[in-house]
Structure prediction request, 302 residues.
Amino acid sequence: MKAERVSRIATTEFVTRYLEAGRPVIVTDAMEDWPAFGQWTPDYFAREYGDWKVPVYGHYFDLLKLMKLGDYIRTYMGSEPPPDIRYVRWFTLHQPVPNAERFPWADEVFKLLQPQWSHPYFLPTDSYLFPFCPPGRTLDVPSETTVPSKALYLSCKGATTNLHLDYWGADAVLCQLHGQKQLVLYSPDQTPLLMDPATDAVRGASGGRRVVDIRNPDRAAFPDFDKAQPTVLDVLNPGEIAYIPAGWLHHVDTLSDSITLTWNFVHLASWRNWFRFLTNEPPASELADIGHILLDDPRRLH
Ligand SMILES: O=C(O)CCC(=O)C(=O)O
Ligand SMILES: [Fe+2]
Prediction:
């Protein structure tokens, strides 16, 4: 149940062994030259960005309120958190929404933080389907402004991201800058035990009804839950980057006050996986997002 861990992995090897195979892995040495690693602490964010308003969520992608980042850090981090545990998920803009101007997106802060980290060395720099980056062009994650989004996650001890699949059939990297998180990953063959089969394209936005809550399972709705076996149950440590392939249901518990940077993408090497997602009746809203991003978004790379 431990994750595979690798270091000094060549991009070609990462592509064939993990991206193409849709297999999760943790890369342990990809942040060594990032100034961010070591510098990004709750104190640092409270000091530098404490007055910025951020979206605050519960255990799911359920926006609850906006707060000043400094207030979140002072209220929820450091000591025993209050009982109403909350989670800061600060995304870059990923779709045109009516309130986009007022919603505190993370694009500005990512611009300011850009010099402090770099493209994870094991990730390819071209041949992405989403955001589209053809062979020969260069995609650099820190300076990338095209969607799918990047995000900064600040979460206090006890904060959780309940079981879900990522949007848009996208793979994810979770870069753990500070604190520890426990990852629970289920391979796609376990999905029928964990998700309502009638709604197997439904993602996190389902509010948890159609995906089992593994910490408080509703066995009437998910009678086969106890048969499900996670492939990975492991701790993600500071300095480590987890690769989570599309289609792997995942649940994340914050073990100590944490800062995580995430990015979603679809690479050409996983085209089969994405084709499966696109042809498997994904929610119309996700298809519309993908259409916008690939066809209409002026920020696209092509
Ligand atoms: O780090 C976490 O809490 C979960 C991140 C995640 O799975 C996501 O952003 O989709
Ligand atoms: Fe996720």
